[in-house]
Amino acid sequence: MRLCKYFLALAVGLAAASFSFAVSPQSPKQDMKDAGHATKNAAKDTGRATRDTAKKTGQATKRTSKRVAHKTARKTRQGAEKVEDKTR
Fold it and tell me: What pTM does this model have?
């Protein structure tokens, strides 16, 4: 009985596999079209990744520049206060 179940499962599995491999062959023209579409999609993906990376880099540069400018202004103010205190 157990062997019969395994044999039936194997037979069904092989039948399903044979249908999945029984795809009609494509013409070379269609293969070229598919390759063109794949290349187009890859170029789009690359462009999006480049855009996103550039945007993140630009935002990080802007944030860092602001932090440096504010820190410089604070230190300049502190230095001016020290000089003012010394001249009194």
Answer: 0.51
